[in-house]
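Appendix B. Worked example

We walk through a single record from start to finish. Start with the input: the chain for Nucleoside diphosphate kinase regulator, Vibrio aquimaris, length 158.
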Amino acid sequence: MNKFELLQTILLEMEKSLVIAQSATQRAIESATDEETVPEHKYDTLALEASYLAHGQAMRVEECERELSVMKQMQLPKNAESVMLGCLVSLFDDDDQAQYFFIAPCSGGLKIDYQAKRVMLVTLSSPLGKALNGKLVGDDVDYQVGPKSFYYQIDTII
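Next comes the structure step. The output line below is what the pipeline stores for this chain.
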């Protein structure tokens, strides 16, 4: 897999999310300022609720813009021997199924379909990211989230 192409695919997906967030913000603002949301009595909170939603959506737009900027500035390592920021890592789970993870500075949990494979972004601050950080090909990786334990073996680091 080509990490540069994967990063471009990730950026496109993040830009789509930004456009959706901007659209949702605009709709929330329109709802908050619509004449139909003008309170009819002191207990009518529709306009207030709509303004809270508009504020939350605006904060989401800011977060999307910030994360997109961070991802655009990220440097991809060349010939990484151990897992680090910017690496694409393939792991085998207990069922010998390949799982693909891209170590990213943000947007953890985002899933991208790339070359007929599902790639999930993982940050180094996540439980899996902490377990992977600095590991080498062939190393075992285990971590726990709540009562559930996960076990992997590192197949490749790109």
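Two observations about the output. DSSP finds three helices and six strands in the chain. The radius of gyration is 20 Å.
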